[in-house]
Each structure stands twice: as structure tokens, then as C-alpha cells.
Amino acid sequence: MQLPTRVVERKARREHRGDGTRPEDGRAEGAGPGAGGAQAPDGKVEADAYRAYTTAHDRVVNAASLASREELAALRQALDKDLTAVRGVVARLAKRLLRVLMARQMRQWRFDLDEGQLDGSRLAPFIASGGSTRPFKQEAETTFPSTVVTLLIDHSGSMRGRPMQIAALTVEIFARVLERCGVHCEVLGFTTRDWDGGDPAREWAADGYPEGPGRLNALEHIIVKSADVPWRRARVALGLFMRDEMLKENIDGESLEWAYRRLRSRRETRKILVVVSDGTPMDEATLAANSHEYLDLHLRDVVASIEDEADVQLAAIGIGVDVSQFYTNATRIASIEELGPALTNKLVALLDAPVRRRR
């Protein structure tokens, strides 16, 4: 989304520095020669660690606190009405996931026992052996590893409308299925508090536009449903997906770190994190003041760090975009309508995989 203030601020930055961006520079417009790096003694630019200019305006909020209960209820009602036709399709996909989960909890038989239920297939050998074989069997439950799943949903402006509608419906149905099978499920969203930087960018401007400022927008991390909260108590908050004015820009790396930290603190044996996004990281204020790959590089670093650990299974679904440039376990879908099948396949594969142990 292009706003007039961006043009004004970029012009001010160029006038302040006395430079602009040439196409061959490979930098976002307004980025100085040292953006995203530090000057070494030999005059070469060294990459600095990713940073935020200020974190004073970041916030983590519960979805229910972002709107009145009446507004959330109205949004929820609109969501239910708009997606009646799609609900049946996604529900059928969820049944497949339910069967997989229930299969993991199926009972197993132990055979050749001295007592228990008579096993007809062992009766003939028992008689032929003169009673020396053991013809009984007993049923025992298999152990299903305690599991928690986090669904991290991109709340950027490009998701507004039908993408958010279907994402909301898909999240709801799968969260209910997981809960039914005793799998804890957390639903999180991520966006920014403003377009074009907001307070952090204004502070940077007031400080005289120092080079390489780092992240120049305030994070908005949203808890739609905590892992320990029953879905019946959290379902009304899903209406927030329909509130278009809260959908702004997306800083994926720090959002992924936040979701990972929450998940890592859990006690479950198996931890699964699935990211749903429709694009690469994007915050125009940050990219204009740093390298044009500043946010991409940080996301790659975060993903590599998580994948290098063995305590969380990480996967991503890209809506209309190939997110395999960031995530090893990635699926690209052409449209939001394919989210249900993609999420089904992803969760089935992750739940069937052996539980990884932390190194």
C-alpha cells in the first residue's frame, strides 16, 4: 500500500544525505552506503547483527483486547455466514487428520500370554501342543506422544478479504480437531502497528536519520488462542481475522522467533510450528533505510537456527509464493482455497514423523 507520507519522508532522507539510490546500487531507495553494516578499519563494510531501532512501541496482545466483545461477535457472525459453503470441504479434510491422530492412539494386541482373552488363531496350536503353548491375548493402548501445534498466521495487508476468511475457517476447524485428539493448539498472528514505520520511523527522523537504523516499525504480535485455552473460549476472537484495518506489514523473522520461544517453553514431547504466509517479509520503512534484503536475511537466519535445533518441527505454507527460499519444509499453494488440503498434508506428515530429540 503506497501512502503519500512515504514519498515525503524518502525525499527528506535523500536531501539530508545528499544522495539517492541508483539502480546498480542494489539497495532500497534512501539507503546509505553503510546501511545494515559497520565500517571496518580497512574501509570495508561489515554486516551487523539484525536489530531494531527501538522496541519501545512493540506489543504482544490478546486478540480479544483489540476490539469490543460486541464487535468481535459481529465479525464472527459475518465469518460464519460468508463461509458456509466452504466449511464442509475443509471439515472433510480435517476428518482425514482426525483418522491419523486416532490411528496413533489405537490399541494394540499382545499375544502368547498365559491369561487374557482367548485368541482363536492360537487354539489349534494349543491343542496340538498338549497345552504347552499360550493361547491368550490382551489389548493395550499405544502411547501417543504429548504434542503441541502452533499455527502462525501472516496478518499483513495483502491477506485482507477472502484469504483471511478462509485462513480463519481453516484454523478453527483444525484447532478443534487437534483439541479433540488431545493435541494442544496455539494460534498466533503477526503484523505491524502502523504503515510506513510509525513511531520508530519518526524517532529515527527526529534523531537525524542515522545510518543503518535496523527495523523501523513497531511489531504487533497477536495471541488468538493460547495452547492451554479451550477453543470454545477462544473462537470469538477469530472474528478479528475479518478486521481489515489491523492488517498492515509483516516482519517475519522476529515473529517466527516469538512463536518459537513460546513453543519451546512448552513441556510437550513433540512441538510443531506451521507458518502460513502470502509473501516475503515486507516493511517499507525498514527496507528504505537498510539493505533491500535486510528482512529476508534475518528470516533466513532465524529459520536456519530453528531448523538446526531438534526440539521443534518447522514447516511453512506459502500462498501464491514459493517460501522454500526460506524454509526447508515448505509447500507452495496457488490460492487460498488450497490451504485446507495443504495444511492437512503438512500436519499428517509432521505427526507421522519420528519425534526428534533435542541435541
What are the key terms here?
359 residues, alpha/beta, Rossmann fold, 2 domains, 7-stranded mixed beta sheet, 3-stranded antiparallel beta sheet, 12 strands, elongated, disordered N terminus
Describe what you observe in this structure.
With 359 residues, this protein is of the alpha/beta class. The protein folds into two domains: 59-99 and 144-352, Rossmann fold, CATH 3.40.50.410; 107-141, no CATH class. Helices cover 37% and strands 19% of the residues. It has eleven helices and twelve strands. It has helices spanning 4-17, 69-82, 84-104, 123-128, 162-180, 199-206, 231-234, 252-264, 284-289, 294-308, 339-352; strands spanning 37-39, 45-47, 59-62, 107-113, 117-118, 136-141, 147-154, 184-192, 219-225, 270-277, 313-319, 330-333. α5 links the parallel β7 and β8. The longest helix is centred in the first third of the chain and has 21 residues, at 84-104. The chain starts with a helix and ends in a 7-residue tail after the last helix. Residues 1-47 have low confidence and may be disordered.
Number of domains: 2
Order of helices and strands: HEEEHHEEHEEHEHEHHEHHEEH
Helix content: 25-40%
Rg from alpha-carbon coordinates: 26 Å
Q: What's the architecture of the largest domain, going by CATH?
A: 3-Layer(aba) Sandwich
Question: CATH H level of the largest domain: which superfamily?
Answer: von Willebrand factor, type A domain
* CATH top-level class of the largest domain: Alpha Beta
What is the total tally of β strands?
12
| Count of discrete alpha- or pi-helical segments spanning 4 or more residues | 11
How far the N terminus sits from the C terminus, by CA atoms, comes to 44 Å
SS-based structural class?
alpha/beta
Strand order of the largest sheet: 3-9-8-7-10-11-12
Poorly predicted ranges: 1-47
Largest sheet: 7 strands, mixed
